[in-house]
Design goal:
heterodimer; A: mainly alpha; 3 strands; extended; B: alpha+beta; 6-stranded antiparallel sheet; 5-stranded mixed β-barrel; 16 strands; SWIM-type domain-containing protein (chain B); zinc (chain B); zinc-finger (chain B)
Chain lengths: 536, 451
């Protein structure tokens, strides 16, 4: 605060100087040096101190911040707001640690809470924004959902606190409102003069509404954009990609930047009807044939002998990563980019299942199937994905086969959620839980009933086999977050401590009971959370 | 008093937690999962069995009907008080009827409740008979007080001597002398039975390392200690009110003798400060009818929460009596006529100009006062260089925030709540600046604690 001026302006300064140097060296004004001087100084200082404090006046107001934009979303119900505060208070490093006990891991429930709140369109309580931003700062995986929920006031806050600068980077446009679809002049202005992040946000927003308009807007300035910007803008065409984007992408195949060319090629190859896809089909087709000279048909592969300029122009990367043969590297890229629809015609009118079942000569099977997997994922081709996944109960589905578990997880993501859940449930029923973790990760939450049952049954089997629950802590953790809360009732029987079997690990029964208790408690908590957020 | 029918809020329950770890552990147990045979009685008891890691579940029972605050018993080995099971059970109870249905208490709970009721009854009978016995030895009490006064006088005289020595040789030397000198003097003041002086002297030790301008602050505090010493040494010549203020600043015990004021008290703020031995809880109350402000202090040994817990935003109808001393706001909570309940009442506020003036006026009655509680109306938190201030929405005045307030997470809650718009803020306003403790956004919405 401002100090008011004293009647004798220097009186206080004089006292401070005397006090600092000592009255022996410098007695205060009007006091003789000696034994009384310190007391006289203290008397005068006491009067001055109280006088100075009593005379305090407010300071001049500084520049006040611009008000934050209004959040028009409905406010969170009170119980849900309290729950959020509790979830946010459960931060890593705030006590606890060690064995997990029967209590739920609240921080793990935050992503789900945020997803539900966002789906319901609630506004975040302003006073919880700091805790929300701190949580998002520590966990990048939380950021998109947390920032969407936090809304425009969070970006307003982030401008005032450098700790939260990530929110400005992560939120496209830094929270500025985008012009409305009708405001063509505003769109034009923002596109031509906006910051990069604002332009990306604008383009993505328009692309989501009107794919053609977005592409046309991009075309107006394409030639003058910097290479990194071109790459980001091009990436936004992934949304709503369609056949009419082809001419633009074809043109981008001749771009100066190699990354832009590669992205354009990737996008084109996801359009099975594109000219690029047709060119790749010809190239890939030339490498794969069915050999009928054997006892039974066998696929033979003749990988390309060179990567010509046409291939490079179509996005094939010529230089192989270290440790990989050049020819198989080129071959993989060709098959990945070729439309899957060409193979039945090329390989004797067979269905994808029959093609996948054909033997492949000379150890090319893994290379070929892996490339087909990538193509199925890129082209979102459920038919091929199903063929490549095979039957979940097949012995090779659980062990090393042509298709790895990671690839299976990606293939599963092209299937509908019910089919995905059924496949994984059948997989778990045959192969148990130890390999299932990755596959469970791509299943829709909450888990469909058959999948949930399969997981719980498998956990129960593991318990009866006498192993320790922490061997399954990954799946247990997933189950806490993904199992349908309606299943809690069915789990009650598993919460008791079972009699210890002969071959069981010592104490395992107690730990299992504890783990199941935590599972049930967490499910109940999730049910309560959903109810508080108005989800019936 | 019975609390039948009045369910607590989760915030109320969590305010009972002795520390953050218990709050967290308790809130996890607030789900139905680990509980069985939970129930509650109309007389205000809640019980339940909580499954722990052992084979035998813990027996937890809480008596919430006691006006002095809830009482707990739990068979768990935790030394936290209340333990996480008690907190979890209360949360479960706060959550709704279903999980803790009304019914007869099981034997193990009934025994404890019965024992408690009996002891309380005996105490009440004894208290009624013993109030005369308490002052049964007025002569002895007077002699003890005299002996203590003599020791304090000796301490104050010695402290005067030390301050004089310091100023004779100069404060510049204090920077080198370090902390030890002050610790030793503070210990002497403890021996002299003047804990108020001891605390002030201890704080002197921290000033030389407190950044630019420390000589001014050191001189100010030395001068105020000198003033307090002199006040004590001449206490016979002081007016009654100021004399009481000096005695309480020295650290002499007093009791709340003021008349009981019955009012609907709004809880403005509750916050704890802790050192190695003691947790001090401050609760600021605002009388909605009388307009008075009162400060309740309660203490807890390290690791234990002070027993009194009144979360911000609640209102309670109760009697409050002031401690002696002119302008002193400390009070004791007397009889409560209704349990605390959430309220939408908001206290009236003042401008920054009026707040500063109020502090100035309060110094007349108590020159040792660091701050006064005030409510600011329509202020906007605004960044001011490295610092922050609360600026009047209309007008050019502002109160800077204290350094401690700037470094607390509550600052950002306040800024977020405001979003650049005016807010109502309760806090402590003094020569170090303003410390916000509670805020209300414009329009509807509950009180947001900032501490």
């Amino acid at each position: 605060m401002n100090k008011i001026s004293a009647p004798v302006p220097d009186a206080w300064e004089e006292l401070v100087t005397s006090a600092l140097l000592g009255t022996a060296r410098r007695p205060p004004p009007g006091v003789a040096p000696g034994s009384e001087a310190p007391v006289a100084l203290l008397d005068a200082a006491a009067v001055e101190t109280v006088r100075r404090r009593a005379g305090l006046r407010p300071a001049r107001a500084a520049q006040r911040p611009q008000p934050a934009p209004e959040d028009t979303r409905p406010p969170l119900p009170a119980a849900a707001a309290r729950r959020l505060a509790m979830l946010l208070a459960d931060r890593p490093g705030t006590g606890g640690g060690g064995r997990r006990g029967t209590a739920p891991d609240l921080m793990e429930l935050l992503p789900q809470w945020l997803a539900t709140a966002n789906a319901r369109g609630y506004a975040a309580p302003p006073q919880l924004l700091p805790a929300l931003l701190d949580a998002a700062r520590g966990r990048t995986d939380l950021r998109p959902a947390a920032l969407a929920f936090a809304g425009s006031r969070a970006t307003w806050l982030a401008r005032l606190n450098p700790d939260w600068r990530f929110a400005l980077r992560a939120t496209p446009g830094g929270g500025t409102d985008l012009p409305s679809p009708q405001d063509t002049a505003g769109i034009r202005l923002l596109w031509e003069e906006g910051l990069f992040a604002e332009r990306v946000a604008l383009l993505s927003a328009i692309r989501a509404r009107e794919p053609v308009a977005a592409r046309e807007l991009l075309a107006t300035t394409w030639a003058t954009e910097r290479a990194e910007d071109r790459l980001m803008f091009l990436d936004s065409l992934r949304t709503g990609l369609g056949a009419d984007d082809e001419p633009f992408l074809e043109q981008a195949l001749t771009d100066r930047s190699r990354n832009v060319r590669a992205t354009a090629a990737e996008l084109l190859s996801a359009l099975p009807g594109s000219a690029l896809a047709a060119r790749m089909a010809v190239r890939a087709g030339a490498c794969v044939a069915v050999d009928h000279t054997q006892d039974r048909p066998v696929i033979v592969v003749e990988a390309p002998h060179e990567c010509d300029s046409g291939m490079e122009r179509d996005g094939v990367v010529a230089k192989a990563p270290s440790g990989r043969g050049e020819r198989s590297w080129w071959f993989g890229q060709l098959v990945e980019a070729a439309p899957l629809g060409v193979w039945p015609g090329r390989l004797g009118g067979r269905t994808p299942e029959e093609i996948v079942a054909l033997p492949v000569a000379d150890d090319w099977r893994n290379e070929l199937h892996a490339a087909w997997c990538r193509a199925a994922v890129r082209q979102r081709d459920a038919g091929w994905a199903r063929a490549l996944l095979g039957r979940p109960a097949a012995p090779e589905a659980g062990g090393p086969g042509a298709v790895s578990l990671a690839e299976r997880a990606r293939l599963l993501s092209t299937l509908g959620s019910a089919e995905r859940a059924e496949w994984v449930a059948a997989f778990i029923a045959t192969h148990g839980l130890s390999e299932a973790f990755q596959l469970l990760g791509v299943c829709e939450v909450p888990w469909a009933a058959p999948l949930g049952r399969a997981v719980v049954d498998a956990l129960n089997i593991a318990r009866d086999a006498g192993s320790y629950p922490w061997s399954f802590s990954g799946v247990m953790g997933l189950a806490e977050r993904c199992l349908d809360p309606a299943e809690a009732g069915r789990l009650e029987g598993l919460m008791a401590v079972p009699d210890e079997g002969e071959d069981a690990s010592p104490g395992a029964g107690g730990y299992w009971a504890e783990a199941f208790q935590r599972l049930v408690t967490t499910l109940r908590l999730r049910a309560a959370m959903a109810e508080e957020l108005g989800v019936a | 008093m019975t609390q039948q029918g009045v369910r607590w809020t989760a915030d109320q329950v969590l305010a009972l937690a002795p520390d953050a770890a218990s709050r967290k552990a308790g809130s996890k147990l607030g789900a139905a999962g680990p509980w069985s045979e939970a129930g509650s009685s109309d007389e205000g008891t809640v019980w339940g069995l909580c499954k722990g890691s052992g084979s035998k579940p813990y027996q937890t029972v809480i008596d919430i009907a006691d006006a002095a605050g809830p009482a707990y018993k739990c068979s768990c080995p935790s030394r936290k008080f209340p333990c996480k099971h008690a907190l979890g059970l209360l949360l479960l109870w706060a959550g709704g009827e279903g999980a803790v249905p009304p019914g007869p208490a099981p034997d193990w709970a009934e025994q404890w409740i019965e024992g408690r009721r009996q002891r309380a009854q005996e105490k009440r009978t004894a208290g009624a008979a013993g109030s005369a016995a308490g002052s049964g030895d007025p002569e002895g009490a007077r002699r003890r007080a005299e002996r203590r006064a003599v020791r304090i006088t000796a301490g104050a005289t010695e402290l005067e001597q030390r301050l004089a020595d310091l100023l004779r040789s100069g404060l510049a030397g204090a920077e080198q002398a370090g902390y030890g000198m002050w610790e030793e003097t503070a210990a002497r003041m403890v021996d002299a039975q003047a804990p108020g002086l001891a605390a002030r002297v201890r704080e002197l030790g921290a000033i030389p390392s407190s950044g630019p301008g420390w000589p001014v602050r050191l001189l100010e505090e030395c001068a105020l200690i000198h003033l307090l010493d002199q006040g004590w040494l001449r206490r016979e010549r002081l007016p009654d009110g100021l004399g009481s203020t000096v005695r309480s600043r020295i650290g002499l015990p007093a009791s709340a003798e003021g008349p009981a004021i019955r009012d609907r008290w709004l809880v403005l703020a509750q916050y704890d400060t802790a050192d190695a031995r003691l947790t001090t809880r401050r609760i600021w109350l605002h009388g909605t009818d009388s307009g008075r402000t009162a400060l309740l202090l309660s203490y807890g040994a390290a690791g234990r929460a002070p027993e009194l817990a009144l979360p911000v935003g609640l209102e309670l109808e109760a009697e409050v009596s002031a401690y002696p001393g002119t302008g002193q706001l400390r009070a004791a909570l007397g009889e409560q006529f209704a349990p605390p309940a959430p309220t939408a009442t908001r206290p009236p506020g003042v401008t920054t100009e009026q707040a500063a003036a109020r502090y100035g006026e309060a110094l007349r009655d108590d020159p040792w006062l660091d701050s006064v509680p005030v409510i600011l109306d329509r202020v906007i938190p605004a960044p001011d260089g490295d610092s922050w201030q609360l600026a009047d929405a209309e007008g050019d005045s502002a109160l800077p925030l204290t350094a401690s307030a700037r470094s607390r997470p509550g600052l950002w809650r306040l800024v977020a709540l405001s979003g650049g718009a005016p807010v109502k803020v309760f806090g402590e306003c003094g020569h170090r600046g303003f410390t916000p403790l509670t805020a209300w956004a414009e329009g509807a919405g509950e009180a947001v604690p900032l501490c």
